[in-house]
Automatic annotation (TrEMBL):
Domain Glycoside hydrolase family 49 N-terminal: 28-239
Domain Glycoside hydrolase family 49 C-terminal: 437-546
Name of the protein described by the UniProt record: Uncharacterized protein
Single GO molecular function: hydrolase activity, hydrolyzing O-glycosyl compounds
Organism lineage string: Eukaryota, Fungi, Dikarya, Ascomycota, Pezizomycotina
Coiled-coil features, chain-numbered ranges: none
The entry's keywords: Signal
InterPro entries, per the entry: B_solenoid_dext, Dextranase_N-ter, Glyco_hydro_49_C, Glyco_hydro_49_N_dom, Pectin_lyas_fold, Pectin_lyase_fold/virulence
Annotated signal peptide: 1-20
Organism: Xylaria hypoxylon
Length: 554
């Protein structure tokens, strides 16, 4: 009884004593208990510089993680493998798969990241009750306490404690929707700076004198355009698949084709007549010159209950072009993508994505987009760590939602030219920004709603919309942006100009409402007159739209 009261009133002592009583399992032991499932790879290779050996899985060179379920009385921390991804998979900027001598200096979207050893890591577990995640840093001599750690999105309000021995503990409440977050050690942040204070610049570094984009001394004339972990660590806690959801095919029936760990039988899978494909647990590999094209008989591809699937492009070259021998050849139609390898210009795909608890890591490269959402798609509770277009909507009746809103935790832009915005609709594939007479007033974008978006840190502006069609009924509500980079970068500025058709007839704009928009805690409204391009809001909206009330900022 006494202990209980003490616990209620002095929570800190409870934590300390909880930690003291904890056991951390030896070796590579994982949890496979009712309340917790973790994974490990004995083929983990700690190597943040070069490609990993065939059969191996890249393991974080910075972080170790363990998970404890509060549902167990034995207070045991189990290993949870921390995966790692590095720029260009350590291959350098090469063109031909597996050929280190095929290097190029053509831009592939990586600027300084490989030179300054930016890495991104994650771990993943399944849980049915609240859990603690224990994190330690390998080989670090720095003393860290809970006060040195920030969890983002910060609105999750997760409890962080330490044990005085440089181990950090994060409390992860159980959620049916899963919990996805970033653990950020404040002595492991990288400040991205531009080569200049003006609008078209690249990131620069002062670390590697013979590396790319080097300048000997960074000064205030090199605008800060982002601050992120140097070695990111993302934690993904997921509920087990619902027992009632019929997502796990029976692997003993003839309709199911079973794939065993090792080399994936790519050509067999393209011609099978089975309906299901079942990947047994373990590491499945494909060469850098092949990708999976399931036979049209296949309805689904899901791993077994209590397991999750992680796929990694570890062996591919960047922009692997499926029509060009998987060489690095940028193509919006043919470059490899996670689903549906081919995209036909001007044609709506019928591929519909319904997904939840999807996670994506590794935002080094300019073309790591989020998932493409065609008409009818519905996604929720997802985590994107992407280097380009994140939520991509192509079509109608698409829903993207998260009960707590959309949290943007890392965002950096080196240039005004890249449409650096939270919400964007642009013309770049078809027209130059000066060809303002190329709109088509026979088409209308109608009834689009964006709500509850919060961006942390230095980032882009609210919106860059080039209206190529009429706009009717757009609501942007409850958006807060923490900070812009210095104004001379131009990145802060939202754009919504007037476009016309070839005869000079402007598109029509009606019911475009921006409501409860904040920048740095200041609410931006027309009434407060702080919305303009040179004011706090940075909104460069065509004068006529504001004058006739077709766009309102309230
Ligand atoms: C444990 O896993 C590591 C990789 O992280 C591996 O190097 C080691 O050999 C494994 N130990 C055993 C006993 O398999
Ligand atoms: C960490 O703390 C220990 C014990 O207080 C101290 O001896 C050591 O110098 C500290 N290390 C660093 C890098 O500050
Ligand atoms: C660049 O930005 C910094 C920080 O705002 C400012 O102090 C400096 O004067 C600027 N330099 C130029 C050349 O604009
Ligand atoms: C658009 O929204 C309006 C107002 O809510 C509604 O009356 C109309 O049916 C919607 N149109 C479409 C195409 O969904
Ligand atoms: C927008 O924020 C306001 C004020 O915080 C809140 O009352 C409203 O419910 C929010 N809207 C939505 C759609 O959540
Ligand atoms: C930034 O880019 C936008 C869109 O390309 C352009 O309209 C604007 O003039 C640019 N701003 C600056 C300050 O260069």
């Amino acid at each position: 009884m006494w202990v209980r009261c003490l616990a209620l009133f002095t929570a800190a002592s409870l934590w300390t004593s909880t930690i003291a009583a904890d056991v951390t399992v030896p070796g590579n032991e994982t949890a496979d208990i009712d309340s917790l499932k973790t994974w490990w790879h004995n083929t983990g290779e700690t190597n943040y510089k070069t490609p990993v050996q065939g059969g191996n899985v890249r393991q974080s060179h910075v972080y170790l993680a363990w998970v404890k379920s509060t549902a167990e009385s034995i207070d045991t921390y189990y290993n949870s493998f921390v995966y790692e991804t590095i720029p260009r998979n350590g291959q350098g900027n090469i063109v031909i798969p597996g050929d280190p001598s095929s290097g190029t200096t053509t831009d592939d979207g990586v600027t300084i990241e490989a030179a300054v050893w930016i890495t991104m890591a994650w771990t993943q577990f399944l849980y049915t009750s609240d859990a603690w995640v224990k994190i330690s840093r390998r080989g670090s001599t720095a003393n860290v306490t809970a006060a040195d750690v920030i969890i983002r999105p910060s609105n999750l309000g997760l409890e962080v404690i330490d044990d005085g021995e440089n181990n950090i503990y994060v409390f992860v409440p159980y959620s049916d929707a899963g919990v996805r977050f970033s653990v950020e050690f404040q002595d492991n942040l990288y400040t991205y700076r531009d080569s200049c204070n003006t609008t078209e610049c690249e990131f620069v570094q002062d670390w590697v004198s013979d590396g790319p984009y080097y300048i000997p001394e960074l000064t205030d004339d090199n605008a800060i355009t982002g601050i992120e972990p140097r070695d990111a660590l993302l934690i993904f806690a997921s509920p087990p698949p619902s027992p009632t959801a019929d997502f796990v095919p029976d692997r003993s029936v003839p309709e199911t084709y079973v794939v065993y760990p090792g080399d994936v039988p790519v050509s067999d899978l393209a011609s099978i007549t089975n309906v299901n494909v079942y990947f047994m647990p373990g590491v499945h590999e494909m060469a850098a010159t092949e990708h999976l094209m399931l036979s049209s008989s296949v309805n689904w591809r899901v791993q077994s209950k209590r397991r999750v699937s992680a796929s990694s492009g570890e062996k591919y070259v960047y922009q692997a072009n499926t029509a060009g021998g998987y060489t690095n050849m940028d193509s919006n139609g043919e470059s490899l993508r996670i689903w549906s390898g081919h995209s036909t210009s001007g044609k709506q795909q019928t591929f519909t994505l319904t997904s939840w608890d999807y996670k994506q890591v590794g935002a080094f490269f300019g073309q790591t987009d989020g998932t493409t959402l065609y008409s009818g798609s519905n996604i929720h509770d997802v985590f994107y760590h992407s280097g380009d277009d994140t939520i991509k909507v192509y079509g109608s009746e698409i829903t993207v939602r998260d009960p707590d809103g959309i949290e943007v935790i890392h965002m950096r832009y080196s240039s005004n030219g890249s449409h650096p915005s939270i919400i964007g609709a642009n013309q770049v594939y078809e027209y130059a920004e000066t060809e303002t007479d190329t709109a088509d007033p026979s088409l209308t974008v109608r009834n689009v709603t964006f709500q509850n978006i919060r961006a942390q840190g230095v980032g882009g502006n609210l919106m860059r919309i080039v209206p190529l069609t009429n706009y009717e009924g757009v609501l942007i509500e409850n958006v807060s942006l923490e900070q812009f980079s210095v104004r001379t970068t131009g990145i802060y500025r939202s754009e919504l100009p007037v476009w016309t058709d070839g005869s000079g007839q402007p598109i029509s704009m009606s019911g475009f409402v921006i409501s409860n928009f904040n920048v740095g805690g200041v609410q931006i409204t027309q009434a407060a007159n702080n919305h303009g391009p040179n004011d706090a809001g940075g909104l460069n909206i065509a004068y006529e739209y504001l004058a006739d009330g077709s766009v309102t900022i309230i």
